[in-house]
Amino acid sequence: MTTQYAEVLTAPEPLVGRNVVVVGGASGFGLGVAHAAAEAGARVSVISRAEDSVERALDRLPAGVEGHVISALDRPGLDAVFGRIGQVHHVAYTAADAPVTGPITTLPVDEVRRAFETRYFGALTVIGAVAPHLDPGGSITLTSGAAGVRPRATSGVLAGVCGAMEALARALAMELSPIRVNVVRPGFTRTGMWADLDEATREAMFRQTAETNLVGHVGEAAEVARAYIYCMTQTYATGSIIAVDGGYALV
Ligand SMILES: NC(=O)c1ccc[n+]([C@@H]2O[C@H](COP(=O)([O-])OP(=O)(O)OC[C@H]3O[C@@H](n4cnc5c(N)ncnc54)[C@H](OP(=O)(O)O)[C@@H]3O)[C@@H](O)[C@H]2O)c1
Predict the structure, then answer these.
(1) Taking the model in full, what pTM does it have?
(2) For residue 188, how many other CB atoms are within 10 A of its CB?
């Protein structure tokens, strides 16, 4: 028993030399995951859609991280990238467009479809492309959000996307076993996702989050990134959802 605990708790450097792919890794949680995985000794590849985003990210990331300018929806492009990377140990999927908000009853259906495009269909496309390359001891970590369990009046569409991501992960955990598939469910976090809001609105939203959640501050990308690293290095969790929301879902 003692030996087992020692092995599990002190498993030495589980990411050293592992190929870690972060889709959406040019900003926010993905950038945090790429940084943490690279510092833990992984060979990290960042995939993102915009060339300038990838260049900016590579400037900020440790030397050796590779960048690929490609959309999560571009299957032939992904096939080529994964063919070059070879065996993949862990994938974190954080790619997303700006959130679609508004009342479900009046939002045009095309807007609702757009909300699923990168987050859900992008994830499906990436998983299809990477599946033949995944190490059986490896993992996929997807992203949902606290809106899935505590929607506001105008975040119903987001709630649907988040619920879909969590259901997808459970189904994939079955289909891809023994590869582990988990989900990180973040709450409000200071990332590039809110860059399109004007500064006053954004800061007011963050202030309100800090005042109402249980930890008294709005999340930072690094705090959420830790959960993805946990999902990669944890060896027994699959089909699981890790909530990292400052208690948002409870209050
Ligand atoms: N931040 C929060 O408060 C929060 C809360 C709950 C849930 N979440 C969820 O967490 C996930 C990540 O959020 P984040 O805050 O890290 O967002 P972020 O900072 O906006 O990063 C998302 C990244 O996805 C990339 N991307 C967009 N479309 C892509 C595509 N088709 N292919 C490849 N890359 C693409 C963007 O890169 P380019 O610049 O290259 O387009 C961007 O770098 C999202 O699903 C979001 O809904 C976030």
Answers:
(1) 0.97
(2) 22
